[in-house]
Write a structure and sequence with these properties.
The complex is a heterodimer.
Chain A: E1 4-7, E2 10-11, E3 14-15, H1 17-33, E4 37-41, H2 50-55, E5 60-63, H3 71-85, E6 89-93, H4 96-108, E7 112-117, E8 119-123, E9 126-133, E10 138-144, E11 149-153, E12 168-171, E13 182-187, E14 201-205, H5 215-225, E15 228-231, H6 233-237, E16 258-262, H7 268-274, E17 279-284, E18 297-300, H8 303-318
Parallel strand pairs in A: 1-4, 1-6, 4-5, 5-12, 6-11, 7-11, 14-15, 14-16, 16-17, 17-18
Antiparallel strand pairs in A: 2-3, 8-9, 9-10
Chain B: E1 2-6, E2 9-11, E3 18-19, E4 24-25, E5 31-33, H1 35-51, E6 54-61, H2 66-75, E7 79-84, H3 93-107, E8 111-115, H4 126-134, E9 138-148, E10 151-158, E11 161-168, E12 171-175, H5 187-193, E13 199-201, E14 213-219, E15 228-229, H6 235-249
Parallel strand pairs in B: 1-6, 1-8, 6-7, 7-13, 8-12, 9-12
Antiparallel strand pairs in B: 2-5, 3-4, 9-10, 10-11
The chains are: A alpha/beta, B alpha/beta.
Family (chain B): Belongs to the ETF beta-subunit/FixA family.
Protein name (chain B): Electron transfer flavoprotein subunit beta
Keywords (chain B): Electron transport, Transport
């Protein structure tokens, strides 16, 4: 068989965009190698998601009732589905959850894995995965020699394309099984309204914002655009914002369609985390800041004047 | 407690990288310990300082990785093991995790700690794969670890916040920034580290099977779209130009 299996992700009961991105990518691979696309939804029912996933290429939507996220539980359930469906290719989001269970799944099904792929193509019946290495200073192309090839894929790296699949729905009997990690409590109070990892727009602040009291300026712009709020290492180290907002080498790696850097000079460690953004806007008073070397659009001006003007201008045009 | 800390040597972020056909040109590259692995080494040492036991630093790679093990010695680990592989299989997480898991099983370690990802491949795979191969639980992105006999309570980073979890030893952990503040090696530590023994293990001794990954090619990063600086008289001018550019030219908003 030359099927492709996608593990989709939900957020607050809604399908994340990456689930559509990966199903679209799976459709292209399946068409090239002559197989079907199975998309697994980790939920009790697929009613809410089936039409969306069918529209982007899913031949089969498989539900897996695995409960709340547990890395071992998800790995057990997804490995069982892979063993049953025997796909040639498995696509998993390179999200914080995907990174965790994919590692266990690869060992359980004895598959090679390429993590954090940003490009997928087919050559001689095998997938060639492209991924940035060495902080984006080089890109490598990999092939996996095992029967099952697993790839975790970066959000916003694949186009969503409308190509309808057969769209049948089936329930899987896969279960979470025995798990040894027990969740005692969660604290989501310090987090982002929009997750950095899959945000398609990010508004990010650096030392140029001068102090924590000025985050609302950037948050207003972010809220207007439905964007996530990012931060440079300097602002996190200064205690102005929690580490969960940090973009860069010791923070999160992001690839949004649009990254708006406000008062960020652009240290190499920061560029390592956001350099693969499709469009980069830099707003900085210092016209010599290294961020302007990678910026698609550079604005050499005071962010305290430009950002509010930008917010109100966007409010006007976005209604 | 017997603790294994995993130490990967990676190029310094500031170093320039020249991609060759299938591997980078290593001349002129400055090598460092992957920053997240420093948190792992520090945590291993702190646990031993508190509850006793032994900390073993393990690094996989060619001869140059011995330098990273010397640094780990200088920080305070008790033993160092070099898994000597000369070719470029370190991209292959399943091969790496198999070698390391076989070594760790033979050592009968209670705890394995590595960084949450290495900064050369950013894959976040090896430590959790080792957990699976050892058939033990894992805590990813740990920010705090507490031990009470075999019971472990940990705080970890999750999407949008933190989570407190409970599990038991043996265990594998990936270290996130915030777990601790790695110490600098002391001068005395650096001097004595030079004389300490580094055990060498070869892949065939560790029962490794073949690599599952083929490096097809390396290439330079895609060129960035040529940027331009916008010109305007005032903030309002910049704002309207930028909105126009992002909506009509880039079509991203």
């Amino acid at each position: 068989m030359a099927d492709v299996l996608v593990v989709s992700e939900l957020k607050d009961g809604e399908l994340k965009k990456i689930s559509r991105e990966l199903t679209s990518a799976a459709r292209k691979i399946a068409d090239a190698i002559g197989g079907k696309v199975h998309t697994v939804v980790i939920a009790a029912s697929a009613d809410k998601y089936a039409a969306d996933l069918k529209a982007v290429g899913a031949d089969a939507i498989i539900t897996a009732n695995l409960g709340d996220f547990n890395p071992e539980g998800y790995a057990n359930g997804i490995a069982a589905i892979i063993q049953e469906k025997k796909p040639a290719v498995v696509l998993i989001p390179h999200s914080s959850q995907g990174k965790e269970y994919s590692a266990r799944v690869a060992i359980k099904v004895n598959a090679g894995i390429v993590a954090d792929a940003v490009g997928l193509s087919v050559d001689g019946g095998k997938v060639v995965a492209k991924k940035p290495i060495y902080s984006g200073k080089a890109y490598a192309n990999f092939k996996i020699s095992s029967d099952i090839q697993i790839f975790t894929v970066r959000a916003n790296s694949q186009e969503v394309s409308q190509k309808e699949g057969a769209g049948s729905v089936e329930a899987s009997s896969a279960s979470a099984g025995e798990v040894r990690l027990k969740s005692l409590s969660k604290d989501l109070s310090g987090g982002n309204k929009v997750q950095l990892a899959d945000a398609s727009i990010i508004v990010s602040g650096g030392r140029g914002i001068k102090g924590p009291e000025n985050w609302p300026l950037l948050q207003d712009l972010a809220d207007t655009l439905g964007a996530a709020l990012g931060a440079s290492r300097a602002t996190v180290d200064a205690g102005w914002i929690s580490h969960s907002h940090q973009v860069g080498q010791t923070g999160k790696t992001v690839s949004p369609n649009c990254y708006i850097a406000c008062g960020i000079s652009g240290a190499i460690q920061h560029l390592a985390g956001m350099g693969s953004s499709k469009y980069i806007v830099a707003i900085n008073k210092d016209g010599d800041a290294p961020i302007f070397k990678v910026a698609t659009y550079g604005v050499v001006a005071d962010l305290f004047e430009v950002v509010p003007a930008l917010t109100s201008e966007f409010k006007k045009v976005l209604g | 407690m017997k603790i294994v800390v995993l130490v990967k040597q990676v190029p310094d972020t500031e170093t320039s990288i020249k991609p060759g056909d299938k591997s980078i040109n290593e001349s002129g590259v400055k090598w460092i310990i992957s920053p997240y692995d420093e948190f792992a080494i520090e945590e291993g040492i702190r646990i031993r300082e508190k509850s006793g036991g032994e900390v073993i630093a393990v690094s996989l790679g060619p001869d140059r990785v011995v330098e990273a093990l010397r640094t780990a010695y200088a920080m305070g680990v008790d033993r160092a093991v070099h898994v000597k592989v000369d070719d470029y299989v370190t991209f292959d997480s399943t091969y790496t995790s198999e070698l390391l898991a076989n070594l760790i099983k033979a050592e009968n370690a209670d705890l394995v700690i590595g960084g949450r990802q290495s900064i050369d491949t950013d894959s976040s795979q090896v430590v959790i794969q080792i957990a699976e191969r050892m058939n033990v639980p894992h805590v990813a992105m740990a920010l705090k670890l507490e031990f009470d006999g075999k019971k472990v309570t940990a705080t970890r980073e999750i999407e949008g916040g933190t989570e407190v979890v409970e599990t038991s030893l043996p265990l594998a952990v990936t270290a996130q920034k915030g777990l601790n503040e790695p110490r600098y090696p002391s001068l005395k530590g650096i001097m004595s580290a030079k004389k300490k023994p580094v055990e060498v293990k070869k892949p065939e001794e560790l029962g490794a099977t073949a690599s599952k990954l083929e490096v097809v090619s390396l290439e330079p990063p895609p060129p960035r779209v040529a940027g331009r600086k916008l010109e305007a008289g005032d903030a309002q001018g910049f704002a309207s130009q930028l909105v126009k550019a992002l909506r009509e030219e880039a079509k991203v908003i």
